[in-house]
Amino acid sequence: MKQNKQYVRAGFQGERGAFSEIAVRQLLGSESDPIPIEWFDGVFQALMDKKIDAAVIPMENTLHGSVIENFDHLLNHDIEVVGETSVRIVHNLIALPGVAFKDIKEVYSHPVALNQCLKFLHQNPQVEKKTFYDTAGSVKMLAETKRRDAAAIASNLSADIYGARILKRGIEDDRANFTRFFLLQRKGGTVKGKMPPSKKVSIVLSTKNEPGSLFRALAALALRDISLTKIESRPLKGKPWEYLFYIDFEGTLKDVKVQNAIRHLEEVADFLKVLGGY
Amino acid sequence: MKQNKQYVRAGFQGERGAFSEIAVRQLLGSESDPIPIEWFDGVFQALMDKKIDAAVIPMENTLHGSVIENFDHLLNHDIEVVGETSVRIVHNLIALPGVAFKDIKEVYSHPVALNQCLKFLHQNPQVEKKTFYDTAGSVKMLAETKRRDAAAIASNLSADIYGARILKRGIEDDRANFTRFFLLQRKGGTVKGKMPPSKKVSIVLSTKNEPGSLFRALAALALRDISLTKIESRPLKGKPWEYLFYIDFEGTLKDVKVQNAIRHLEEVADFLKVLGGY
Questions:
Q1: Which residue in A39, A66, A179 has the most chain B C-beta atoms within 10 A of its own C-beta, making it the best mutation to test that interface?
Q2: Do the interacting molecules here have an ipTM over 0.95?
Q3: Does the predicted model carry a pTM greater than 0.90?
Q4: Of A11, A62, A81, B204, which residue has the fewest beta carbons closer than 10 angstroms?
């Protein structure tokens, strides 16, 4: 870890070279120390414990949907969202330098990545697929074990980091495969992302358990011509069949219209937390 | 499998004794043949191939949220929802007959079930937790391997089915742990559930990608005093950051008010599918 004070210590889940590290670079540029952490709850804990200055976490993927665990973490920690970015998930076949495609007998990756490269795997039945706990971790494993009969499926960044080579680029079945990441800081922190602002606000609320309550909540936005870009429901713990709604909408927290909408939402909601404007 | 024509062949995911089989019994009574199937997509395929008459699948859990894979399957198959039920998830410590609690060195179960019994596991550190692919499957494994130093965490039904005994009942941390199941048939089938009707309708729709479109869709329900009971968003494949909304509301498909609301929804939606009334 570099000790220069200018560098933002940015935690992410996974091994060095993970797609989350690509998001760290997009959000914070090269003036960041990407800090790999094994589990999502560990990333949030490190942020609260001031072991890192910022966290970069995936919120949703266009093929898979939301990373629901992280919605719960957003609610339960005293953090704010200060940026977002989206990373196109490009899967590459990666092997050690000098290894040829015809040498490959096995290919390692996370099961989700393997499932996103089914066409390639069907066209190459001589290659046996092997599940591994992490995409970038499978490249790291090749480098550590010096395997010359195996490849990994992972990001181009992971090939750079572990000194491996890309044998085939972009072997994913579906190119409309993007993951959206949030940049988080402790409440009141001073982390600044390098991305142009999205001009979006994220909130989470629960509505009274009565007919029309969600409709009335959305009215607070719609009647002010504020455009909702995403709504996600999550179960409310301890209250079976009641829900929290995570809502993203266009605007900034400085807009009077947005401030009025939030005040209006507070009136109609049982509970409301502003997660951040970015 | 019994050959008597009166028996409904009801497919579910998992091993015999799974919580889904408890849902089969609640939904179809004892006049059903519960048919265990390994994967969710296999259950849907068996229904389409007429290998089973009905399918019983979990849609959401009050602690974990939606079983998102099954929402996609509902959209992509020509099926209808004809019933729902909710099962309280009670975890029991189960061992073979004659095995005492003090003999237990290891406890096997699905990682989700182990995570829902953390208090019990912390209070009994002499018992090592071991992950297994299935709750009921771990009881089956005990019966097959005749292990006398191990227990499983699973449903009371799985103890009955595999001739095992419950050593401790209800060891789950949180009693507000329910799973909601749908009873499905092929479109136009004649399966009748034994549960009293819920008087609910499930639909899935996508809205035009323009401000206020979800609000206008919900207006079709709210302006008719139709109570929305659940909304769930899922990414629309091939259209990054656009969504499908799965919506449940109160009413029956015979209500004129509901028929009008569906006609109104068809006007404002890009796409709409009625999944069923039950």
A1: A66
A2: no
A3: no
A4: B204
